[in-house]
Amino acid sequence: MRFLVTGGGGFIGSHLTERFLSEGHEVVVIDDFSTGARRNLERVASNPNLVLIQGDMGDADRVRKACLGVDAVYHLAAAVGVALIAKQPTETIHRNIYPTQLLLEELRRQHQSGREVPLFLASTSEVYGKNPKPIWNENDDLVFGATTKPRWSYGASKAIDEFLCLACVRELGMKIVIGRFFNVVGPRQSGAYGMVLPRFVAAAMQGRPLMVHDDGQQERCFAHVADVVSAVVRLMSTPEAFGKIYNIGSDKPISILEMAKRVVQIVNPDASIEFQSYAQAYDEDFEDIRRRVPDLTRIRNAIGYEPTCALDDIIRDVWKEMKRTS
Ligand SMILES: NC(=O)c1ccc[n+]([C@@H]2O[C@H](COP(=O)([O-])OP(=O)(O)OC[C@H]3O[C@@H](n4cnc5c(N)ncnc54)[C@H](O)[C@@H]3O)[C@@H](O)[C@H]2O)c1
């Protein structure tokens, strides 16, 4: 098979690319390395089954050529990371919506000429916004904050992607799976755009304080990228999954402070933990989500999904990779 992985030079995309190549498939990666990096693909760079197209997906011609002859598309390219989004809301909106439109136009054209190319859309738990329910299922309301707070532009732009995809399913019966990722972590994730685990591990390794935002009582669930990639692949080979949305991640919450303590314990017991206000970390307009826990019933029923990797093992895995590359 030949797959297109957009954002294949990024954290999750590079793991998905490696997985397909290891199974003997051909992979076309399109990435402008805005937040990804060539080194993410170093293990597979010489694989003859890898075609790398370096460039922005905002180019219709490039997107059309990348889609030619592929059997499925995995769309992961996007502007990612709370810090990046707070700083560059215009770019976030543009990067998250326009490439999806171009991809859908091309896949719709192929569909109408009788060629069905299934699409996986990487969406996000951020689409639930600050829904106050303790556990979120796929039919829950999207509860965004004010448009004066740029953070919500990420979830809102991904929600538009979902609407665009679901419109193609409804109007044309196209085969599309939407996965809402919840805090995916693991080797190669960059801490440069606000991602918490790589930031904590790097700080502990360097003997710097781990900076916890606000009171550290925000709750998140962290899933290993290998578990997430495996779920994506299985969903795309499950016919009943087409046209549906799935939460993908772990459903075991931990507070950010507790995670900082675990990182200190595992990586460097001499490292300290300090607290920082959101205004210091981002800006006065920043608004956070206190608790983010997925209901995994739907994905369990569809593919028997169960996250396998415990948080301490994930921390060790991230640490090992950082030691290797530092
Ligand atoms: N990591 C998570 O916890 C998480 C959570 C929810 C959703 N997601 C979604 O998963 C996907 C992958 O995220 P990631 O964590 O691997 O981030 P990442 O930043 O490592 O990957 C995104 C990749 O897309 C590329 N890219 C961005 N805009 C592009 C464009 N216009 N043209 C070409 N390439 C472009 C970047 O260079 C990068 O390599 C994203 O769609 C993201 O919204 C991730």
Keywords summarizing the entry:
326 residues; alpha/beta; Rossmann fold; seven-stranded parallel β-sheet; two-stranded parallel ribbon; 11 helices; 40% helix; globular; binds nicotinamide-adenine-dinucleotide
Can you put this structure into words, describing what you see?
By secondary structure, the protein is an alpha/beta fold. Helices cover about 40% and strands about 15% of the residues. The chain has a domain at about 1-185 and about 225-250 and about 295-305: NAD(P)-binding Rossmann-like Domain (Rossmann fold, 3-Layer(aba) Sandwich). Helix 4 (about 90-110) packs parallel to helix 5 (about 150-170) and helix 6 crosses helix 11 (about 310-325). The radius of gyration is 19 Å and the shape is globular. The chain binds nicotinamide-adenine-dinucleotide. Nicotinamide-adenine-dinucleotide binds next to helix 1, strand 2, helix 4 and strand 5.
Uncertain spans: none
Strand content: 15-25%
Over all CA atoms, what is the radius of gyration? Answer: 19 Å
Read across the widest sheet, the strand sequence of neighbours is 3-2-1-4-5-6-11
**Strand pairing plus helix content: what structural class?**
alpha/beta
Give the % helix: 40-55%
Number of helices: 11
The name of the CATH superfamily of the domain at 2-185 and 224-250 and 294-307 reads NAD(P)-binding Rossmann-like Domain
| CATH C-level of the domain at 2-185 and 224-250 and 294-307 | Alpha Beta
Number of DSSP-assigned strands: 13
Largest sheet: 7 strands, parallel
Q: Ligands in the structure?
A: nicotinamide-adenine-dinucleotide
Mean pLDDT value: 96
Separation of the first and last Cα atoms: 36 Å
Q: What is the CATH third-level topology name of the domain at 2-185 and 224-250 and 294-307?
A: Rossmann fold
CATH architecture heading of the domain at 2-185 and 224-250 and 294-307: 3-Layer(aba) Sandwich
Order of helices and strands: EHEEHEHHEHEEHEEEHEEHEHHH
Please tell me what the overall shape is. Answer: globular
